[in-house]
Amino acid sequence: MIDLYYAEDDPNIANTVKEYLEQKDFKVTIYDTLASIKQALKIHVPSMVLLDWNMPDGRGDYLCKWIRGTWKELPIIFLTVRGDSCDIVSGFQNGADDYVVKPFELEVLYSRILALLRRTRNAAGQYLSCDGIIIDQNRRTVTFHLEEINLSVAEYQLLLYLMQNKGKTVTREKILEQVWDVNGNYVNNNTLTVTMKRLRDKLDQPSCLKTVRSVGYRMEDTI
Question: 136-219, what's its fold?
Answer without folding.
Answer: Arc Repressor Mutant, subunit A (1.10.10)
